[in-house]
Write a structure and sequence with these properties.
928 residues; alpha+beta; ten-stranded mixed sheet; globular
């Protein structure tokens, strides 16, 4: 069967085939003719003066596909029928895509061929429009001709934030509406019952099943805890909401609102009947809960850890099984690439000498807590069940695909003497994009960059007057699993010795077919049982007692708190140095790595509310829900506790260079996800940047080249394949099939081991056969090496902790295939360490056993050759089976990046790159 591409909200609009029948081209033209008049608002050209800008024209950014993420019904229909694009909907996609083949010849002077000029302000001859939203005299929104980015300038704080809200709605209203419904678990009722929509709302609502009272309490608590800044944040949010709602009213009466509201049945295209609901402040928290869950919540997976540990102990015995498990866990691998690489130690969540309070489940007793109840129609069919299973796995895994990378070099090693940074978040590829670009200038705010749509009252990643900042997902463990002992029935539990009722939280959804989503009618109820220790995720027995396993996250009920840190980052009177930058991001409770550069200094800080655990608690496994094993000074009413001090978080100022690609932060600092071993995609950056720094004279262009070169590298080829070939070539290869495959792989490796087109736009890979062979070989060789020694049961259990592979063509993570980000999670370190051990090479932090060929070089060679021959015999159609976008065997297309539709506008797919979605290139020339 062809592999189906995962779909998200309104992905069914991606092809005109979903708009059949009455929407033939002739009737589309008639319909469009009646809709064209209200498409645009009147705008006049005016000059926008640039505020203080210390970057000297050396700040750049990019965010595909384009700034304009709204489209009227007429524009949607034109796009579906003829492929035409609204202004600025796609103009950043080409430059972004072209870097893949253009980077080898890159110079400082040609950077903005592939990026936007991110200087403050707009030159007078580049002003496309100026708008005073709602007729206000205290704010203007200027848009530039090249990209249509809003440059918001206010003379009052309220007006500035009103303008930010208005601009956000201009560019992302539909997307904002989609994600406030995702955060509330109401997507299917709003946008349709497609299986992908079911999966999306289930994945996020399982982790953040908030009531309206919960959402409001977050706001009240964040304001109360932060004094004047809390009050300012509330005022900013209300002004921002007023701007959003003003645009809703204006676009509704002017009939230029997003066309998706018509296609999903919320508005009538003829009578304009129907409503677009105003946004309210709790919607912002619902939005924040989605973003925080997706990118900033490290941890979880303790039950899966326990199951795999017990499988190891069953196979080897307790002592040896624990040793094997720990060697695969790589808690503190000495060969792991580090962001803080000066040897400084930051101990967090270490393995205790004697674990206390562990509550491992009885073998075979674990079952996942159901989320969906009483399904009907398409809420109960096979596609719905598959979507639900995927959503559950994504919600409960510790392998959070947060993505993002950073390359930052101290001025000591640059040509100019000023630091250089190339950094940004990998947030996936969507149409419209989850992020939006903006510049905000007003009292207490001066910044340009990217913000998540609907949360753009401040720039979240970008630049200030004389500094820039960015983030990558860090993944340290802020989620613990507790075993609550049941009493009375399955919905009561012991809390400090008292039998206590669980709280039932429900969300009932139903849907019917629309023009946008033809999924037949269906419904279901999502139900979560909450305890003081968090939502129930599993049921089991432990020591013969019936228990529910719950997950407690330190940011649970606190997604709104981080607004203070972002407010500080935008304040030029607050951030004036690397120290004040670090102070600002300490107020962000999401698990992120933060990077900073100004004209003189660089800095790094790892954020997140890291709970102080009870002595002896091992964060890797479930513990009993008893006071002795709770977080220090934990208050269940507010979900607050003692957190590790800022000095205990990995941090640094003016290290020679920093790299991050979701790798280990520092020595002794444990992360929740598996795979921080000898081979990690962070090595692709580390090797290149370290070489640049050793040579000196680093420039913006050379650092972009390093990033771009790494973005095309196949991690398996660059860092593991040489040793695999060393084993195979330890004797002459006599088998013709194997010899031919080895020859192709060696030639590809010699050429650099990259997945790159023969020429720009060819849609054919150079070394295509070698790429195909390695894609087919990797899962076969991993199984051939490890399953005989581990046994089938343990080998399978370990894959629940860490998937074997994550090639560009594989469907992985919340967005499925065509997602760009690759090689974050896989068994490359295990294969690397084992093969090196078999070769007799030195291995720090080795696996507990030698697995390939049982430790015999000749037997290992036989395993590799046998699996290589099988892989070489697989056709392209078998390796790349095709999906709704690509025909079977189309290797380039299988890897290609798709701007996954969240609305009615579709875009072309681009050649694979493994790089940030929003990206900055910065080198400040001076400082205030």
């Amino acid at each position: 069967m062809p592999r189906r591409t995962s779909r998200t909200a309104l992905d069914r609009l991606r092809t005109p085939g979903r708009l059949t029948g009455f929407l033939k081209s002739a009737s589309i033209c008639v319909l469009i003719a009646g809709l064209l008049s209200p498409l645009a608002q009147t705008a006049s050209a005016a000059e926008a003066a640039a505020p203080n800008d210390y970057c000297g024209g050396q700040c750049s950014d990019i965010l595909p596909p384009g700034e304009n993420g709204n489209a009227t019904l007429a524009q949607v229909l034109l796009n579906q029928a003829f492929g035409t694009q609204p202004d600025h909907a796609e103009d950043q996609l080409g430059p972004y895509a072209n870097l893949a083949k253009g980077y080898p010849a890159l110079t400082n002077s040609t950077i903005n061929t592939f990026f936007n000029d991110a200087s403050f302000g707009v030159a007078s001859d580049q002003v496309a429009s100026t708008l005073s939203p709602a007729g206000r005299t205290d704010v203007t929104i200027v848009r530039d001709k090249k990209t249509g980015v809003p440059h918001i300038t206010g003379t009052t704080r309220y007006g500035t934030e009103f303008g930010a809200g208005y601009a956000a709605a201009q560019d992302r209203l539909w997307l904002m509406d989609v994600f406030r419904h995702v955060g509330r678990g109401q997507l299917t009722a709003f946008a349709g019952g497609a299986p992908s929509n079911q999966g999306l709302e289930q994945q996020f609502w399982r982790n953040a099943p908030y009531s309206e009272a919960d959402l409001q309490a977050q706001i009240d608590n964040a304001v109360a805890a932060n004094g004047a800044r809390g009050q300012q944040a509330l005022a900013d949010a209300n002004a921002y909401l007023a701007g959003i709602n003003s645009y809703i009213d204006a676009s509704d009466s002017g009939r230029y609102f997003p066309g998706e509201y018509v296609l999903t049945g919320h508005k009538d295209s003829i009578t304009n009947a129907g409503t677009i609901d105003h946004f309210k402040i709790t919607d912002l928290v619902a939005l924040a809960s989605v973003i925080g869950s997706l990118f900033g919540s490290g941890g979880g997976g303790e039950v899966n850890n326990a199951i795999s540990l017990m499988a190891a102990q069953e196979r080897y015995g307790v002592t040896k099984g624990t040793e094997v498990w720990e060697s695969f866990r790589e808690r503190n691998d000495p060969e792991a690439v580090l962001t803080v690489h000066n040897g400084e130690s930051f101990p967090y969540a270490p393995k205790p000498a004697s674990a206390q309070g562990e509550a491992l489940p009885d073998a075979g007793s674990v079952s996942t807590e159901p989320l969906v109840y009483d399904p009907t129609g398409t809420g109960a069919d096979q596609s719905a069940s598959a979507a639900s299973a995927t959503a559950t796995a994504n919600a409960l895994t510790s392998a959070k695909r947060g993505m993002s990378n950073a390359l930052v070099v101290s001025g000591k090693y640059t040509a100019s003497g000023h630091p250089v940074a190339v950094f940004g978040p990998q947030t996936g590829y969507f149409a419209p994009q989850l992020l939006m670009l903006q510049e905000i200038q007003g009292p207490g705010i001066s910044a340009r960059g990217a913000s998540f749509a609907g949360l753009s009252m401040y720039v979240e990643l970008g630049r200030g007057q004389d500094y820039s900042w960015s983030a990558t997902t860090s993944g340290q463990d802020i989620i613990d699993t507790y075993a609550v002992e049941l009493c009375q029935d399955d919905y009561h539990y012991l809390y400090h010795g008292t039998c206590t009722a669980m709280e039932k939280i429900e969300q009932k959804n139903s849907w019917a077919p629309t023009t946008a989503d033809g999924t037949a009618a269906g419904s279901y109820t999502m139900r979560v049982w909450r305890t003081k220790y968090g939502p129930v995720e599993y049921r089991a027995t432990a020591g013969g007692k019936k228990v529910a396993y719950t997950t407690l996250r330190s940011s649970y009920l606190h997604e709104a708190d981080s607004i203070i840190g972002f407010q500080m980052l935008n304040d030029p009177d607050y951030v004036k140095s690397p120290q004040t930058f670090q102070s600002a991001v300490q107020h962000i409770n999401y698990t992120f790595n933060w990077f900073y550069a100004d004209s003189t200094h660089t800095a790094y800080y790892n954020s997140g509310n890291n709970p102080v655990r009870a002595s002896g608690v091992d964060a890797e496994f479930p513990v009993w829900a008893q006071s002795a094993y709770e977080w220090k000074n934990w208050n269940p009413a507010t979900n607050t506790a003692d957190y590790t001090p800022a000095s205990a978080h990995p941090n640094s100022i003016d290290q020679d260079y920093y790299i991050s690609w979701n790798n280990k932060q520092a020595k002794d600092y444990a992360t929740a996800s598996w795979g921080d071993g000898s081979v990690h995609r962070g090595n692709l950056l580390e090797d290149r940047v370290k070489k640049l720094v050793a040579a000196g004279g680093v420039t913006r262009a050379s650092l972009v080249k390093a990033m771009a070169d790494a973005s095309l590298a196949d991690l398996r080829a660059e860092d593991v394949l040489p040793d695999l070939l060393k084993v195979i070539n330890s004797s002459t290869v006599t088998d013709s099939t194997a010899a031919a495959a080895v020859s192709k792989l060696q030639a590809w490796l010699t050429a650099g081991g990259k997945r790159t087109e023969t020429s720009a736009g060819s849609k054919k890979y150079a070394d295509a056969d070698a790429v195909r062979i390695l894609d087919a070989w990797w899962p076969l060789l991993a199984k051939g090496i490890f399953e005989p020694g581990l046994g089938a049961s343990l080998y399978t259990a370990m894959q629940a902790n860490l998937p074997v592979d994550e090639s560009p063509s594989a469907a992985h993570g919340p967005t499925g295939a065509h997602a760009g980000s690759s090689f974050q999670y896989g068994w490359w370190s295990y294969v690397d360490k084992d093969v090196r051990a078999v070769l007799g090479e030195s291995v720090q932090g080795p696996l507990a056993d030698k697995y390939c060929g049982g430790g015999s070089l000749s037997a290992c060679r036989d395993t590799l050759i046998s699996t290589l021959k099988t892989a070489a015999g697989k056709t392209a159609a078998q390796v790349y089976p095709g999906d709704t976008l690509c025909s079977a065997g189309d290797q380039w297309c299988a890897d290609s990046i798709v701007q996954r539709t969240l609305g009615g506008i579709k875009h072309y797919n681009i050649s694979w790159q493994n790089r940030p979605t929003f990206q900055q290139v910065v080198e400040f020339t001076s400082h205030r």
